[in-house]
Amino acid sequence: MREDFTSGRRRAIEHRLPRAAAVVVLGICAIGAAASGGAIVLPPGFTDELVAEVGSPTALAFTPDGRLLITTQPGQLWVYQNGALVSPAALNLASPTNVICSNSERGLLGVAVDPSFATPNNNFIYVYYTFNRAGTCVNRVSKYTLSTGNVASGQTVLIDNIPSTAGNHNGGDVQFGKDGYLYVSVGDGGCDYAGGGCAGANDAARDQHSLVGKILRITRDGTIPTDNPFTGANTADCRFAGGTTAPNRCRETFAWGLRNPFRMAFDGNDGGTRFFINDVGQNTWEEIDLGAPGADYGWNVREGHCANGSTTNCGPPPAGMTNPVHDYGRSIGASITGGAFVPFGLWPSEYDGDYLFSDYVVGKIFRIEASGAGLRSEFATGLGGSSAVHLRFGPRAGTQALYYTTYANGGDIRRIYFTAANGVPTAAMTASPMSGPAPLTVNFNGSGSSDPDNDPLPWLWTFGDGQSATTAVPTTSHPYAAGNYTASLTVRDSKGATSAPVTVTIFSGNTAPSPVISSPAAGATFAVGQTITLTGSATDAQDGTINPATLQWTVLRHHMTHTHPWFSGTGNNRTFTAPAPEDLAATTNSFLEIILTARDSGGLSGTATRNVQPRTVAITLATNPSGLNLTVNGTTVTGPTTITSWVGWQLALAAPTRQSPYSFVSWSDGGAATHSVITPSTPATYTATYKKGKK
């Protein structure tokens, strides 16, 4: 980290110039304020609690009357009201007609509430989702009316046809500034919509005639604010076509040059519209940018405060480009996600105006101090991998808490609040076995419970069958007759502070179904673009054969130590298209995990998993004479170099026309100096031939 903050509180962060899950829960379960599993570590005086279990939660927003709106990647908008999730969903883009693409990083990604929501004839909410337009996936922003009965209706499309080329890097945040305008974050699509490169070689964000890789700003009706930075001559409206023709610039654009600005954070402490942009990096830097009209943050020329992919070429940015206010490298985290400013007066004064942001891969929430030092520290750790997707402050018990969505544990909505001098303990419980023939004796273990002040704890057990117990040790056991029971545990410290309960369901007299995956077969591999069929079956000791129409599938794309949801669906013989690797670095550390879940009539589920590896092949890039430079998918290599590729993956090859004293002559496959090849099924060599002198 480079230390070049200036003094001042909120403005201090602006002067900083240093520098993308657990198994998706299929369905939801409101449990009020149940406690965490005990692994989350917070500063003294803070408590983390579970609000609700929601599969694949992506974003949060609050209405003025206190309703919490929750979007999910598969396409549902849920309302949490009066301590419970309201069923059915207020909006379901997946049913009865599936109008959403939710594979890869696509889906229902953002939600905002109109600043005048409570006024007559308003009740407007705004969502960002990936629309399935006759098999082509495009991102759009729509406005709906949310009734007091929690039904969203009357869609008005405000922005449409934003390319979602490769499935990832969609952006997806929608938020209102204090200026009353709607801000929209849009990613670069992963691969160039115009057929160019992918990952670090994708220069689509440089195209000012396209909406990708941008922050957009529109009115609540979708029109262009008169003070947007790109209006007048050589500009055009792009909000329905997703772009215009070069050299025109899109009038909706507020700022540009972004890779995947997944989340924004608006500073409620500021008198105007001040916000940060959390832009997910490629392989080197995660960055936080200060939103400014007309700003160019440099992608794909720049990544963080350096040149794309570099940790050493970090001089001043090229003319016209803007460095981030903060960035961090891969020793800290690997995928920046949510962000939020701490409201003045909410927590102890040392937190006033601080910026909190999360990293999806390492499962942490970081803090940047606004006191002038600008130091980055860890605020919350132990959140688990694939966690803390979105951060937002919202109401809790007459004050506010920091709410966040996480994909960990299948999908949760959680919140962190300050509890003053005596911290509230946290309960954690395991139970084994949780199902089996009746009578069933279950062993409970609450040793994961904790108290932030290290006070001694008694364990208060409620077994769900009318019996309870208090123990001085964290373990106990209890016999159950046939039936389903909800057991709970709370812990209380010596000063009387009591945790929220944690619960488990016991299925006495019932055993879990046994699912079997038949396709893809064990040991199967895949090629990029291949259609993979998911077929399975399940049997249950009590129910017999499980109806195949109820089988639930989840496909996760593993990348290094984290996962990305790739596909989910219900039924048998479901199909999906196999992905490409995210970039060259991902070719050796990525694979697919297939998860089949079957549920019996008693509500007990069983899962089967199968890993499917990509079909890899060695590709050699050579030069004649050897030792000259080439680029492949934006990465410079020296010939000869052998890389690992996936069968069917497109490789963008480029041979510089001049490398003194040599000039390019030809590629061995007959392609132009810059051309693309599809990775074959067997090892191959591509040689660029040069000769001395000019061609």
Task: Specify the overall morphology.
Answer: globular
Q: What's the mean pLDDT score?
A: 91
- Level of helix content? under 10%
What's the β-strand tally? 55
What characterizes the major β-sheet? Answer: 5 strands, antiparallel
- Radius of gyration from the alpha-carbon trace, in angstroms: 26 Å
Neighbour order of strands in the largest sheet? 1-2-29-28-27
* Helical stretch tally: 0
Which spans of ≥5 residues are poorly predicted at pLDDT below 50? Answer: 1-38
By helix and strand content, what is the structural category? mainly beta
How far the N terminus sits from the C terminus, by CA atoms, comes to 47 Å
Question: Beta-strand percentage?
Answer: over 45%
Describe this protein's structure.
The chain is built from no helices and 55 strands. The chain is mainly beta and 695 residues long. The strands form 14 sheets. A five-stranded antiparallel sheet has the order 1-2-29-28-27, with no helix packed on it. A five-stranded mixed sheet has the order 31-37-36-33-34, with no helix packed on it. The two termini are 47 Å apart.
Report a brief summary of the structure.
By secondary structure, this protein is mainly beta.
